[in-house]
Amino acid sequence: MKPVRIVVLTGAGVSAESGLGTFRDRDGLWSRYAIEDVATPDAYARDPALVHDFYNMRRREAAQARSNAAHHALARLQQSTQHEVTLVTQNVDALHEAAGATPLHMHGQLDQALCAACAHRWPAPMEMSPETPCPSCGGATARPDVVWFGEMPYALDAIDAALTSPDLFAAIGTSGQVYPAAGFVDVAAASGAETIELNLEPTSTRFDDHRLGRATEVVPAWVGSLVQ
Predict the structure, then answer these.
(1) Binding site residues for NAD(+), as ranges?
(2) Confidence at residue 215, expressed as pLDDT on a 0 to 100 scale
(3) What is the pTM of this model?
(4) Among candidates 184, 128, 175, 177, which has minimal Cα distance to 155?
(5) Residue positions forming the annotated binding site for Zn(2+)
């Protein structure tokens, strides 16, 4: 059987059952923190200590989390020889990798640091501050290697290439409110792909199919229907 080309996009809902909070739900992260205070380049320029404290907290939480059944199911799908799977994630945790998958992190990674001066990247210490030096240029210019609002997401060329000819596009645990990721379903559909959303509730009528429920239940069941 010819491998089916599948593009999977995951959002915060995939990691929610691992104890990592979502963003836009009623009790989500953005109900407790103002985006403009902790997740923009202007916020970092204005108060880098506050931004570092926010991401130190998130880094600690992510380090304590463990991959759940949805992460493991998607790793199984990506490792299957029956399909060609591109896994794209909006998540900045490393739970896909811990389960054995190889995702494209379009919003960066909490466990990586980035020098705002020379663009050097390195494994982030658990605690960072405005005084954290870059190991390459020595400047006190270290920041989390995450994509803030107003910045360009990573890996867009690879994602665009994958979306040109998929047979199936799946969005899992994502709010469908943040672009460009929210528009991936339209690009995939225009390329002739079937589209499916797996989420607690539907976010859009643009998908051909919906599987509703907890990620740890609906994702393994869906993967089981694809991988024999």
Answers:
(1) 11-30, 90-93, 173-175, 215
(2) 97
(3) 0.92
(4) 184
(5) 115, 118, 134, 137
